[in-house]
Design brief:
Shape: globular
Protein name: Putative phage tail component, N-terminal domain-containing protein
Pfam family, one: SPP1_Dit
Radius of gyration: 23 Å
CATH architecture of the largest domain: Beta Barrel
Structural class: mainly beta
Organism: Alkaliphilus peptidifermentans DSM 18978
Number of helices: 1
Number of strands: 21
Length: about 240
């Protein structure tokens, strides 16, 4: 298997693609928030947010004849159908990192006989880079959660709750504290709190009225999570996250 890539579980070799070059930006695009005022030098800086990340993949595809090339290209277009939404993208030379990308723009082809060359423009709506393996840590006492990345990770918490008042507290590596509180009338059950998507579900039903507080963000380093009250067990699922 050559130095290619795997997209949605399928390797480029199996798609009859040879990767000849790639452009993976070190950081996502930036959305700057400046405000200028007439008569004042410079600008007010209201911060920055990360935009999308676009990855360019230069490829060639080789077929036995021009008709075979057309068939392979049509199959390729179907496989990269952007309506399938962003899918996992992993490079052979960086196998422990994963991007979530989809095809954007046109797919122009330069054809010479039964050989075609083209560039796949893959955009990551979620601009961050993640570990390919999801970390899963659980416990009934204090849990130590380490994020090895350079950007905060947004975990999913699976909380077994005995009902009534309770609390889950995150002591972050940067000194900040975040909390999730269960109301005194919260029923028992398993609560799934997806901090990335901002959803709270109990036994497959929305449970927003029973839980208030912060959706956790795990900065780089060692963070601790502890519980009290009716909270019985916590499982933390997350990926190390990089800018």
């Amino acid at each position: 298997m050559g130095k290619g890539f795997k997209y949605d579980g399928m390797h480029s070799d199996d798609l009859h693609i040879t990767l000849t070059g790639k452009n993976v930006p070190i950081v996502p695009s930036l959305v700057e928030h400046f405000e200028t005022i007439a008569g004042r030098d410079g600008a007010w800086d209201f911060g920055v947010q990360y935009g999308t990340r676009t990855i360019e993949l230069d490829c060639i595809i080789l077929a036995v004849n021009p008709q075979d090339l057309k068939n392979k290209l049509r199959a390729l277009a179907g496989f990269f159908n952007p309506r399938r939404a962003a899918r996992p993208l992993i490079f052979d030379d960086d196998p422990t990192k994963i991007y979530f990308a989809r095809l954007t723009g046109q797919l122009p082809l330069a054809q010479i006989g039964s050989l075609g060359s083209f560039t796949l423009h893959m955009t990551c709506p979620d601009p961050f880079v993640y570990s390919t393996n999801e970390e899963i840590i659980s416990g009934t006492e204090m849990i130590y959660v380490t994020n090895e990345g350079t950007h905060y990770a947004q975990p999913t918490l699976i909380v077994v709750h005995n009902g009534g008042a309770g609390k889950v507290t995150l002591n972050r590596s940067d000194g900040k504290v975040q909390e999730l509180s269960f109301a005194s009338n919260s029923p028992s059950g398993t609560y799934t709190i997806n901090c990335k998507e901002g959803t709270i579900v109990r036994n497959n039903t929305g449970a927003y009225k029973f839980v208030t507080g912060d959706f956790f963000q795990l900065p780089e380093g060692v963070n601790t999570i502890e519980k009290n009250g009716g909270v019985d067990n916590i499982e933390v699922r997350y990926r190390h996250t990089w800018i």
